[in-house]
Amino acid sequence: MFNDKEFNEKINSNGNNNSNNNSNSNNNINKNINKNYPIEGYCHDEECHDDFCSDEECHDDCRDDHCHEVGCSCEHGLLEDIDKDTQNSSKEPHIIIGTGIILITIGKLLEYFMVQPSFSFGFFHTNELISFIIFLVVIVAVGNGVIIDGIKSLFKGKVRMELLMTIATFGAFLLGDGFEGASLMVLYYLAEYIEGLALDRSKKSLTKLVNLNPDKAILKKDGKELEVAVEDLKIGDTVVVRSGDKIPIDGEIISGTTSVNQASITGESLAVDKNIGDEVYSSTINEDGYIEVEVRKTSKNTIFSKIIELIKESEEKKAKIDLFIDKFASYYTPLMVVLAILVATVPYLFFQEDLVTWIKTSLILLVISCPCALAISTPVSMVSAITAGTKNGIIIKGGEYIEELNKIKAILFDKTGTLTEGKLEISSIDIIGDISKEELILIACSIENMSKHPISHAFKNYAQENKIKLQDVLNFQSISGKGLIGIINNEKYLIGKKDIFSDLNLDEESKILINENFKSSNDTILKNKYGKTQMYIGTESKILGRIYLKDKLRVDAKDTIESLKIRDIETIMLSGDNEEVAEEVSNILGLDEYHGNLLPEDKLEKIESLALKHGDIAMVGDGVNDTPSLARANVGIAMGIGGADVAIETADIVLMDDKLSKIDQLISIAKKTMFVLKENVFIVIAVKATLVILAVLGHINLLTAIIIGDVGLTLLVVLNSFRIGR
């Protein structure tokens, strides 16, 4: 769990992420590392971390350093540009690889079928000078970027794969095997190219998704229709959307009816009927019917824009296993270099073994030491998981939450808006004081109209449906977890839980009611109504009445709870509602545990105690009052469309279509991802360990080492990781 400092940092960092990321996302920094590198990526060098190489000078430095600490394909910044068209259609990598293979083939054929002049220099000697020159051309043409970066890393005191490949290549040449040296460089280039393709492929679905939003809109102004940029739309503008068009902005339908395909937001392709007064979202498709939409959010603040920013943020939060692999690779490569040096020298110095034979063996070890397959296994797996989630309307903000979900022992649920639809309706009203039903509901609706709490929607809808003309409210106050206060016609009224009246000097009748001993002629109304929320309304001296609100359980709530139980995950409800309501909901859904009458601070205390009991826990909520709980849990899951903005920002995972059934799907993705990732790590380590043993025993050569230990392993890891998205 978090201590207070970590908790505050989580709240603050999540709350500020949107503004920070908006500025970062304006820079399209997806550049080719080097004209001879086929991989697109971003700098991973310490000198460039602060601004992701936003300036030209830093870009040059980073290109020289080739991004990744261990010299493999760059995964940092992979998702930064998913909303931009950065597809690289260059055929240069294919030409380079093809040319290299052709030249190597020609050089090898010449060795067999042509008598060539010899050449000697010092201890170096070759009988095939023409082939030697051809192989040297291959190295310069294919690997000049690798060689330059390898030399630069040496001057900086860093051991990177470029340096190791440079040493192995020229080592093979000096030992008289130009064919192996040239083949080594071409295969290394091919491995890097495959890694780049894998990273590109892993984010391809995300790129397609986020490019769904149109950049033009039809603005209706002064009776005319004008085509304008979506970013120029202002709140209050009217946008025309015809059948088959994409809705360009978030807003409310003010004219027409239609069906809307919301797959880009929710992952569900089934169209949803929309009428006047209903909300529509940018990137969704108007399937039939002409509608006019009043703009409610600017283009930077739409639900779709939030999805893009959340996906971009996800890369910054690495899983612990990813951090472990990064750290492991930073020690593994230098260790293998030391081992290679020992293998080259010890047999010769102490056992009078053949020096050339053991130098070849040491070069093979340098090739085997390439940690690229290991390093790429995590980013490809995590991006595949994030892609799989996004396609199904689940926004996962980072790999660390996938890892945490795999360990979850208990899931805590808020009630209103989470287990229930959160669309409360006024079901009955009981009059207690000297006031009419019409006057009581007028006061209640007027005060609740000032609130943003989900409960207030029931009163707002009631007022709208019954055409109630609301009164002015002065000195409005919202008391967290208790209720509302407001002055109407010089009289102070209170509405909320009975706790809001606890410190007031009430008359005896009201005190009895608060103590739940009050009886009335309408006994069926005043009994505790399981599954219904009770709202008290009164003045500072008297309770005037009680209003009952009913809510509807989500249709998939019970099935979701049952599926979680099959996984041996405890299900617990934390509710601010009374114990009777909480108990009834718990019994209907079959929850393992429930707790009612909880204020936001009470929920935090309860989460702490439940964390001590169960270990790793997740919290599912939707409202502003759930924000501290979402931040405190190991994994916070927010309901997307119906949830409060601050809850969505604070949560680690967002369910965009508000379907609880997505939680089971989410856990399936997490478990599959971690299984595949651990499988990849085991395969890589096992194969490389086997190759090291075989190399020391003299059973493999340089080509076998790179074909199996680099190219082959990279392909295997990549293909295995793609299983996650299926």
Automatic annotation (TrEMBL):
Pfam family, one: E1-E2_ATPase
Keyword flag Transport: no
Segments forming a coiled coil: none
Top EC category: hydrolase
Ranges of residues in domain P-type ATPase A: 212-312
Location (main, coarse): membrane
The entry's keywords: Hydrolase, Membrane, Metal-binding, Translocase, Transmembrane, Transmembrane helix
EC number, as in UniProt: 3.6.3.3
Transmembrane segments: 94-114, 129-147, 328-351, 363-388, 680-697, 703-722
Places the protein is found: Membrane
Classification via InterPro entries: ATPase_P-typ_cyto_dom_N (IPR023299), ATPase_P-typ_P_site (IPR018303), ATPase_P-typ_TM_dom_sf (IPR023298), ATPase_P-typ_transduc_dom_A_sf (IPR008250), ATPase_P-type_domA (IPR059000), Cation_Transport_ATPase_IB (IPR051014), HAD-like_sf (IPR036412), HAD_sf (IPR023214)
One term under GO cellular component: membrane
Annotated Low complexity bias: 10-30
GO-annotated molecular function: ATP binding; ATP hydrolysis activity; ATPase-coupled monoatomic cation transmembrane transporter activity; metal ion binding
Region (Disordered): 1-30
UniProt record similarity statement: Belongs to the cation transport ATPase (P-type) (TC 3.A.3) family. Type IB subfamily.
PANTHER family linked to this entry: CADMIUM/ZINC-TRANSPORTING ATPASE HMA2-RELATED, CADMIUM_ZINC-TRANSPORTING ATPASE HMA4-RELATED
UniProt name for this protein: Putative cadmium-transporting ATPase
Species whose genome carries this gene: Methanobrevibacter curvatus
